[in-house]
Structures are given as C-alpha cells and as structure tokens.
C-alpha cells in the first residue's frame, strides 16, 4: 500500500502559531543582523568571520566522514574560541557599544563607494607626495587599505573623504598643522581620514633608530594586509612596510614599482594594461 507523507502534529501547530507577531519578530531580527553586518563591514572582523566559517565547514565534514581525531581537535578548538572571541572582537564590540550609547547603531553611515579606480594614478600621486616630503624633510605616514578593512582606525582620526592627490597629501603633513600628527589612510582613490593613530609594532628585533612613525607603520601591517609608506622627518628616507617587513631607502621609481606589485595587480589589472598606461 502506497504511503503518503503526512505532517506531524507539532509541525502543524508551528504553522498555526506563525502569525503577524512572528513575522514582525523575524523582520526585526533580520534588520538587526543587517545593521550588525554593516557595522563590521570594513574591519578585520570580516576576515575573522571567514576563518570561523572555514572551521565550521571542516567540522561538518569531519563529522560526516567520522574523522574522530580531527573532530575531537576541532571540538577543543571551538571551546577555546568561545573564550577567545570576546578578546579577538574587542575593537568591534567596543565600537558597537559606543554607537549604541550614542544612538548611532541604527543610523549607520559609511564612506561613499568609489566604483572604478585608476590605481596607476593613485600610485603616482602617492609616490610624488612621498618624494616631495622627502626633499623637504617632512615626516609622513600614508596607509593604503587593501582587503582588510581599517574602519576602526579611520574612526579614531578625522574623516576627510577627499580625492588622492600629491598636493593634498603634502599639505596634510606640513608641520604644526592640525592634521600632520598621525597617519593618513587611503581607501581606493580617496583619502578616508587623517590624524589616525595606529598600533605600534611589538617586534623586539626592530632597529633602535626607528621612531614612532616607523613603528606605527610596521604595526598596522602586522595587524592587517595594509601597505604603509613612511617618510622620515630626520633623514628624509622613504620606506615601505608590508606584512611587518620594512624596506628602507627607496627612491620614487623603486617605491612606484613596489606599490604597483602590491596594489595594482590585486585590483585585477594586467601587466600589459600597466605597461600601456606608462
């Protein structure tokens, strides 16, 4: 005798209970999740969440194929992560609570989207500004955001959202002006913020002749995939930091070549396109 699937009594009760209040409840939760995603957008939390998602997928496969040792190790790791997550997400949690206290959690504003970016022009302007700063012995710290968002550092500076030009960057770092102390953060082809304070490198093997500006530039590259261009006020030397490694005494051509390798090809352009632009 052919059997037909019949919904269980509990399932039918759940459908009956699904009323207008349930719809409102779901919509409120969905909206709050949406605002939360906007809050962490442009921060390191995005990459951390991707890492957690990978761990969850691996855990599911380990359970599916009965990989007991891997499953046991991942179970212990997840237990440790429950304790570690509040520490790892401390900057994002602090920002969320601050915005909630100021009434800004539901009124989130972001920097404008920029569409197509002429990356070669941005690189040229950065290199030209670094050369001018070097010749005039003016210190400078220019941070270029890549995949890891720097929103928490932008928030502690002065938001600008201005087009990247050499004249603009040099003017920011003129001594004794309001914005010269701190770092400039570039997002796309825009100066997102100036006078930003960054975490200092804790590398004990750094040269003792490196000052706060160099240590801040190295520090932000240790915490993210950003690129830091640093100009020494004392010597006029141009340096570039990436992934915690500092390359010193660069000229304009060497800086342009290195930035092209780090930025231009990541943006999806080809080598032939870069050569044609030149």
How would you describe this structure to a colleague?
The protein is α+β, with helices and mostly antiparallel strands and 278 residues long. The protein has two domains: 9-102, no CATH class; 119-277, 3-Layer(aba) Sandwich (YojJ-like (1), CATH 3.40.1700.10. The protein is 52% helix and 14% strand. It is built from eleven helices and seven strands. Strands 2-4-3-1-5-6-7 form a seven-stranded mixed sheet, with helices on both faces. Helix 6 packs antiparallel against helix 10 (252-264). 27% of the residues are buried. Mean pLDDT is 79; it is low at 108-115 and 266-278.
- Report the oligomer: single chain
Proper CATH architecture of the largest domain: 3-Layer(aba) Sandwich
From the N-terminal CA to the C-terminal CA, the straight-line distance is 78 Å
User: Largest beta sheet: what is the strand line-up?
Assistant: 2-4-3-1-5-6-7
CATH class of the largest domain: Alpha Beta
**Number of domains as seen in the coordinates:** 2
The helix content is: 40-55%
Low-confidence runs (pLDDT<50, min 5 residues)? 108-115, 266-278
- Briefly note the CATH topology name of the largest domain: YojJ-like (1
Q: Helix-strand pattern, N to C?
A: HHHHHHEHEHEEHEEEHH
Radius of gyration: 24 Å
> How confident is the prediction overall: mean pLDDT?
79
Helices and strands, with pairings:
Layout: H1 9-17, H2 20-40, H3 45-64, H4 68-88, H5 90-102, H6 119-135, E1 140-144, H7 151-155, E2 158-163, H8 166-172, E3 183-187, E4 190-196, H9 212-223, E5 227-231, E6 238-242, E7 245-250, H10 252-264, H11 271-277
Parallel strand pairs: 1-3
Antiparallel strand pairs: 1-5, 2-4, 3-4, 5-6, 6-7
């Amino acid at each position: 005798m052919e059997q037909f699937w019949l919904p269980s009594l509990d399932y039918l009760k759940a459908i009956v209970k699904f009323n207008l209040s349930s719809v409102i409840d779901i919509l409120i939760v969905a909206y709050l999740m949406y605002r939360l995603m906007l809050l962490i957008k442009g921060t390191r939390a995005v990459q951390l969440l991707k890492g957690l998602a990978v761990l969850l997928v691996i855990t599911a496969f380990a359970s599916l194929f009965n990989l007991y040792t891997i499953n046991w190790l991942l179970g212990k790791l997840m237990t440790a992560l429950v304790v570690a997550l509040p520490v790892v997400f401390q900057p994002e949690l602090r920002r969320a609570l601050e915005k909630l206290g100021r009434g800004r959690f539901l009124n989130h504003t972001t920097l404008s989207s920029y569409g197509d970016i002429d990356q070669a022009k941005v690189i040229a302007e950065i290199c030209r500004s670094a050369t001018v700063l070097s010749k005039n012995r003016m210190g400078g710290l220019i941070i270029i955001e890549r995949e890891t968002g720097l929103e928490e550092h932008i928030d502690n500076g002065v938001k600008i959202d201005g087009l990247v030009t050499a004249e603009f960057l040099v003017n920011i770092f003129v001594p004794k002006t309001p914005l010269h102390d701190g770092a400039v953060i570039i997002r796309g082809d825009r100066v997102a913020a100036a006078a930003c304070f960054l975490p200092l490198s804790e590398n004990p093997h750094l040269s003792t002749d490196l000052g706060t500006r160099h240590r801040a530039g190295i520090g932000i590259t240790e915490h993210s995939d950003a690129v830091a261009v640093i100009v020494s006020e004392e010597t006029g030397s141009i340096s570039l930091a990436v992934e915690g490694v500092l390359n010193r005494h660069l000229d304009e051509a060497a800086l342009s070549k290195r930035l092209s390798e780090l930025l231009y090809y990541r943006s999806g352009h080809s080598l032939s396109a870069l050569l044609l632009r030149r």
